[in-house]
Here is the input.
Amino acid sequence: TSAVLLGLINSYQQNTHATTMSVSLTMASKTPVGFIGLGNMGTPMAKNLLKNGYPVIATDAFPESCKELQDSGAQILDSPAEVAEKADRIITMLPSSPNVIEVYTGSNGILKKIKKGTLLIDSSTIDPAVSKEMAVAAEKMGAVFMDAPVSGGVGAASLAKLTFLVGGVEEEFNAAQELLTCMGANVVYCGQVGSGQAAKICNIMLLAIGMIGTAETMNLGIRLGLDPKLLAKILNMSSGRCWSSDSYNPVPSVMEGVPSANNYQGGFSTTLMAKDLGLAQNTATNTRTPVLLGSLAHQVYRTMCARGYANKDFSSIFQFLREEEGQ
Here is the structure.
């Protein structure tokens, strides 16, 4: 009996030791993560890191943007350089290429105070050439830069259902994936630095073309006397079906929970769509690739920005078409 009791005690001690080891290893991997850029996308992304137990050290060019994340438990610092001093894994989510260049290489930029071996993940949508420039600059400082732009809007960011399109050194992909899976449902390795941006730009161009086509089709059907909900149902069981028709319909009252049901508020702004299509246009020019519909889509969204639609969701193309025909 004493031998059995001794065996149980030893077993308990081993299990307790294993559990303690497991917990300490888990805590060790949850070292602070830097996050720079706390806009509509960055804030919910950083919140999901906090929810997964990662301490977050963050900053934003606009201090008022930091409050929500600070209230959720993040430490807020004054500059990207300060974040780089305290974290060896940093995620950036910024509006455009100039913002990325400034945050990484500016006078208070990440690379001013970066530690050797730091992993830098940029989830901004920018020119692939700028991603490559940042990777070279980071490498000179002994750090690793990866581009990881996202597909999915604010809703997907809040629900941790984003898709990350990752470009960079393949050996570092697992380290990046550990963090990105806290914020997204899909993390896809696309190839060398800049490949993530290339994939994102291609997807966004198709999305814009599809949305314009859906809006024109719905408008024509309505003008022909068809009920919009019926037309959407027919399209979605037919060969014309696409994401813009079945998941993000641009016609008010056809679907609930999308920007068209909320006066085109929220979602993905026309300004950002025009910016991303500009990136597609630039890369098409640089690679001498004909993008006839992509170029037209770029012009349409630029025109919308000039006509008061800049801050509305990009599905407001339907409203824009209706107003155009009324002139």
The longest helix spans residues 195-223.
